Recover the amino acids of this structure.
């Protein structure tokens, strides 16, 4: 039996200051799809989306606190199954 992973998603404001964040999320989630809508970026992936602080900091060129993610996010589909100083994971809990 083949199982299909349920899509999770994050909607971010389409703003210049969020581009390094989106690039970091893409780098850590190669299967990620991004839809560009007016003022909004819809990021989706099967199973989970991982956001690593170190990858975001590498894109930004300075320190980044995972709490700053709240300034960029508009909505999401899934659960924040992990959110600490180093990583944010959005997935579905079964």
């Amino acid at each position: 039996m083949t199982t299909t992973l349920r899509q999770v998603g994050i909607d971010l404001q389409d703003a210049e200051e969020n581009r390094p964040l989106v690039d970091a999320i893409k780098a850590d989630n190669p299967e990620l799809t991004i839809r560009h809508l007016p003022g909004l970026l819809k990021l989706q992936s099967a199973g989970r989306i991982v956001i690593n602080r170190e990858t975001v900091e590498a894109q930004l060129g300075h320190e980044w606190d995972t709490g700053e993610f709240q300034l960029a996010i508009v909505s999401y589909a899934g659960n924040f199954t992990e959110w600490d100083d180093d990583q944010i994971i959005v997935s579905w809990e079964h």
